[in-house]
Design brief:
With 144 residues, the chain is mainly alpha-helical. Helices cover 47% and strands 0% of the residues.
Length: 144
């Protein structure tokens, strides 16, 4: 099912700002909403996209209120089209499957998939030493 574009998607260059990335990791939405507003998104538009009241968005942007519930955090991610990985969430339903263009993908590998793989390996009983061995490049076989 295709997802409609958000009326308040954050401009992509903003997602490369180290200050904003730190705020996203900390889930400091006062910084996020203020940055979105400076980028030209009104609090009304942000509120509409995130299913919030404009007054609440304004309060959060001023630091008079905080966003703490997972439901609200997910609505903000979806409304502003912030990739889930930037806020410690799973990939959002609207995110594409090509993670090679994602600013935090390393060598085209989605960090959330890497975390799931490691979680599965640990559940299967692999130790961190065994995992470290698996990450090392294979030594070429030589015959004498």
């Amino acid at each position: 099912m295709p997802y409609m574009p958000s009326p308040a998607a954050l401009p992509r260059p903003l997602l490369g700002d180290p200050h904003l990335l730190a705020a996203l990791r900390a889930r400091d939405f006062g910084v996020v909403f203020a940055a979105a507003n400076r980028a030209g998104l009104s609090y009304n538009r942000i509120a509409e996209a995130c299913s919030m009241k404009a007054e609440r968005v304004s309060q959060v942007a001023r630091g008079a209120s905080e966003v703490k519930t997972l439901d609200a955090i997910e609505r903000i991610s979806d409304g502003l089209r912030i990739p889930g990985v930037l806020m410690g969430l799973a990939a959002r339903p609207w995110e594409g499957t090509d993670h090679s263009a994602h600013p935090h993908a390393q060598d085209g590998v989605d960090p959330m998939k890497r975390r799931d793989l490691l979680r599965g390996a640990l559940a299967a009983g692999l130790t961190s030493a065994a995992l470290a061995t698996l990450e090392q490049p294979a030594m070429p076989l030589t015959s004498n």
